[in-house]
Amino acid sequence: xxxxxxxxxxxxxxxxxxxxxxxxxxxxxxxxxxxxxxxxxxxxxxxxxxxxxxxxxxxxxxxxxxxxxxxxxxxxxxxxxxxxxxxxxxxxxxxxxxxxxxxxxxxxxxxxxxxxxxxxxxxxxxxxxxxxxxxxxxxxxxxxxxxxxxxxxxxxxxxxxxxxxxxxxxxxxxxxxxxxxxxxxxxxxxxxxxxxxxxxxxxxxxxx
Amino acid sequence: xxxxxxxxxxxxxxxxxxxxxxxxxxxxxxxxxxxxxxxxxxxxxxxxxxxxxxxxxxxxxxxxxxxxxxxxxxxxxxxxxxxxxxxxxxxxxxxxxxxxxxxxxxxxxxxxxxxxxxxxxxxxxxxxxxxxxxxxxxxxxxxxxxxxxxxxxxxxxxxxxxxxxxxxxxxxxxxxxxxxxxxxxxxxxxxxxxxxxxxxxxxxxxxxxxxxxxxxxxxxxxxxxxxxxxxxxxxxxxxxxxxxxxxxxxxxxxxxxxxxxxxxxxxxxxxxxxxxxxxxxxxxxxxxxxxxxxxxxxxxxxxxxxxxxx
Lengths: 208, 310
Hints:
The structure holds two protein chains of two kinds.
Chain A: E1 4-9, H1 18-28, E2 37-38, E3 46-47, E4 51-60, E5 63-72, H2 81-84, E6 90-92, E7 99-101, H3 111-115, E8 122-124, E9 129-131, H4 137-140, H5 153-157, E10 163-167, H6 174-181, E11 198-200, H7 203-207
Chain B: H1 5-29, H2 35-61, H3 81-105, H4 111-133, H5 144-169, H6 171-200, H7 208-212, E1 219-223, H8 231-234, H9 242-266, H10 272-296
């Protein structure tokens, strides 16, 4: 069984937000509809993004580090957002494990967002439906896109190649090797959601 | 979490409708009810059940981003408590409507329909409560107390409404309903305060360390990565001060439970027509505050990702 996922290397992420903007650009132009930006130039803008980069300071002065932390849907193997969906709009695609929302079935009840402990889902108030990272499923499935580019937009955009993409169930894939050899971990594993996305730890941050 | 007013209305109104349905049906099932006085009591009673339930249903639509697709919500009853509620609520109202129809056309309420009404009311409480109690990462909700509280708060509302209705249509039974309401109010207050006390001592699921996977005791978020608002900063924060939250809590304990209890127990016979409806009004207002607190008390695990001001 294939499980597509991102593996993010926190050693080289510089927090440039190229993944954020490329994600927004690709997905707002996609077949599922735009990602709304309400009041974009006003006092209180509200936008939908599938991927956001947060910044944490770790340690105590003077031994501190800045950790840039990109986060999008983790495509959990036990996704808590899927069984709670009353319409079946939220589902985990069988052939590659991508967690998706069918925007034609979603009623916008927001229950899936409550059930996700990672805050990965964002409601689009303009379209009235829940949205989330699709791993750019419309790129993966599009034969018109050159094979080397058939990856999530954020992976193509990352200037430091901090984002790896592949099948985490294939032991010989680049992502599986990276997880195995470099101590790849998942977020809040104690919750039992079994995220597919992994992170490669900062070496110094862990040595602390 | 940010309380959605439509959901506060929905759960308060249908809880009251379910409680009233049980209050109307139990005397019939116990064999202690019949005759024209009871028929005159049941007819407006079941009409009220339908009205409250329908109002709750209308309120629920206001919560949806795409209300015109609401019919789709019945699809996933195998896994989703929300889907189950969407099926059981119209079922409950349908059974109430059949009962009212029988009362209007045949001058009787068949016991089978009354029993079915009680069963569907109980099932609906389970479905509604499990929508919240079933989200295991939201520890404030994930407790059997959530189910117990929805049940007893609904029973209290329904018995209180039945007592007011009985004052008008079935005066001989009014005191019985008031005693039942007082007992349900007392149990509900105990359960609800226990749940609030439990929630107060909880830590949100997960930890900041595992949320970003850095095992350091010193982690401080310096940027949430965007300067504007986002769904995740709006939906999961109520944005009110601790004083406001404490005020709301004080309001629901007092208005929702204590004041109605005192009014039920100590209103002189001659003043019941004022005191009991006042108790109902106070109780329902208090319940809106109680439901607000029920949502606002939840500290969502995702909040760790958006703690920084910028």
